[in-house]
TrEMBL record, chain A:
Residues 38-110 form the DNA-directed RNA polymerase RBP11-like dimerisation domain. This is DNA-directed RNA polymerases I and III subunit RPAC2. One of its GO terms (biological process) is transcription elongation by RNA polymerase I. It is found in: Nucleus. GO terms for molecular function: DNA binding; DNA-directed RNA polymerase activity; protein dimerization activity. InterPro entries: RBP11-like (IPR036603), RBP11-like_dimer (IPR009025), RNA_pol_Rpb11_13-16kDa_CS (IPR008193), RNAP_AC19 (IPR033898), Rpo11-like (IPR022905). Keywords: DNA-directed RNA polymerase, Nucleus, Transcription. The lineage of its organism: Eukaryota, Fungi, Dikarya, Ascomycota, Saccharomycotina. GO terms for cellular component: nuclear DNA-directed RNA polymerase complex; RNA polymerase I complex; RNA polymerase III complex. The keyword Nucleus applies. Belongs to the archaeal Rpo11/eukaryotic RPB11/RPC19 RNA polymerase subunit family. Pfam families: RNA_pol_L_2 (PF13656).
TrEMBL record, chain B:
GO terms for molecular function: DNA binding; DNA-directed RNA polymerase activity; protein dimerization activity. It comes from Starmerella bacillaris (Yeast). Residues 48-314 form the DNA-directed RNA polymerase RpoA/D/Rpb3-type domain. The lineage of its organism: Eukaryota, Fungi, Dikarya, Ascomycota, Saccharomycotina. This is DNA-directed RNA polymerases I and III subunit RPAC1. The keyword Ubl conjugation does not apply.
Length: 127, 317
């Protein structure tokens, strides 16, 4: 490889965004016939989403149980178990959890931006 | 409140869930969260920051921390083409050191390389920034040695044909020592920097430190007076406890390191209670340079939201 890199070495690649894979989230076998209990397998997610989503879903009074696990550290996926009291389905509980999680992020971002714009803090390095 | 005892902690887990306590409503309520949640920034500069998130669950504070370390993208040297290296540093060690040099390149100005191993994908003006390092060590006529030290500032940005990036990419710190040379030794190489995430390699992490601690709380249960008051004050770092009318008063628990020193002394037994607020997080973020800590934090919030919206768009069955 030459020291003076020219554009001949660097052809234009594709820059398209990757679409969400079909198997990003799947329902594991054994869903209750009325849909009140189900386990989900979510690919490429870990404790970051697992724990926050578990918290949001547990905040729902219609949910009896919610827990997540990472079955094996070598496999890059997470399991999420939801059981409801029967008033809503597990899928509905998951969707509500996701909506609530987005709401939390919006609130955190807005409050942080407000404080940031106020400029009411030390702005120099403290030696 | 998390209780801190002499040699153990108790009451550690969150319990704010519906059905946990009879008669208490812990169902999710966005308006309640909005009015309870608070951000308080105490310091925010180009490189460091210190701010509090108050009224949020640990799972979120931890998610933001994890994302800042491992998932907010930044630019680092990924490939090194060595033309000449007669220094005592081996090629692979030199390449590893170059990878870890923090760069001042706006991550938004580069595109992703989709293939993680870059085997079937070409580098191009949109996804790669090139730097060149050309240093030759020589003995001057007066006996002094020229270019004895190779510093990060010797890495020079080399734009590809037709490539314009503003501001011009540089290194974040000029005085990072990369190698040492003796007269006659030479390093000549080209490096390519790309966008990556900290979970792939720590060199892509945009933060040097991203951590939080819980706000300490010190409650004085019974009066402490006289000599004991002074002794009590000395159990804490300076500025945590003041003496007012001969009695200790907790003025700034934020400064406390929770050393538990006060719990070692029998005279304070039953008179003081140490704890930490479970929903008050004191964040400390240090950036490696390319982005301000505020930007990094906001990107972590956006990344968590993105995770949820991606799942929302997933079709089940």
């Amino acid at each position: 490889m030459s020291g003076d890199v020219s554009m001949a070495d660097v052809s234009v690649g594709n820059t398209e965004e990757i679409a969400v894979e079909d198997d990003k989230m799947t329902i594991l076998p054994g869903m209750a016939s009325d849909g009140s209990a189900a386990s989900f397998k979510i690919k490429d997610e870990d404790h970051t989403l697992g724990n926050t989503l578990r918290y949001m879903i547990m905040k729902n009074p219609d949910v009896e149980f919610c827990g997540y696990s990472i079955p094996h550290p070598n496999d890059n996926h997470m399991h999420l178990r939801i059981q409801t009291y029967g008033e809503i389905t597990a899928i509905e509980a998951l969707q509500k959890g996701l909506r609530d999680l987005v709401d939390v992020c919006d609130v955190v971002e807005n409050k942080f931006r407000d404080e940031y714009n106020k400029g009411d803090y030390v702005q120099e390095e403290i030696a | 409140m998390v209780d801190i005892h002499r040699d153990y902690v108790s009451n550690v887990s969150s319990t704010d869930f519906p059905g946990n306590f009879p008669g208490e409503d812990h169902a999710w309520d966005l308006e309640k969260f909005k009015s309870n949640f608070n951000v308080s920034i105490s310091q925010l500069t180009e490189r460091t920051s210190n701010f509090d998130l108050i009224g949020i669950d640990t799972s979120f504070a931890n998610a933001f921390r994890r994302i800042m370390i491992a998932e907010v993208p930044s630019v680092a040297i990924e490939k090194v083409f060595i033309e000449q290296n007669t220094s005592v540093i081996q090629d692979e060690v030199l390449a590893s050191r170059l990878g870890l040099v923090p760069l001042l390149v706006n991550p938004d100005s580069l595109d992703w390389m989709v293939d993680p191993l870059h085997l079937n994908e070409a580098h191009n003006v949109e996804n790669t920034v090139a730097f060149s390092l050309q240093v030759k060590c020589e003995r001057n006529s007066d006996g002094t040695i020229k270019n004895e030290n190779v510093y990060a500032k010797d890495l020079k940005f080399v734009p590809f044909e037709g490539q314009t990036i503003s501001p011009e990419p540089t290194v974040a710190y000029e005085d990072i020592l990369i190698a040492k040379l003796r007269p006659g030794q030479e390093i000549s190489l080209t490096c390519w920097a790309i966008l990556g995430v900290g979970s792939d390699h720590a060199k892509f992490s945009p933060v040097a430190t991203a951590s939080y601690r819980l706000m300490p709380q010190i409650s004085i249960l019974k009066d402490i007076e006289g000599e004991d008051a002074i002794k009590f004050q000395k159990c804490f770092p300076n500025g945590v406890v003041d003496i007012v009318d001969g009695k200790p008063k907790v003025v700034d628990p934020r400064k406390d390191t929770v050393s538990r020193e006060v719990l070692r002394h029998p005279e304070f037994e039953g008179k003081v209670k140490l704890g930490r607020r479970r929903d008050h997080f004191i964040f400390n973020i240090e950036s490696t340079g390319a982005m301000t800590p505020a930007e990094i934090f906001l990107k972590s919030v956006a990344a968590l939201r993105e995770k949820a919206t991606v799942l929302q768009s997933c079709k089940l069955e």
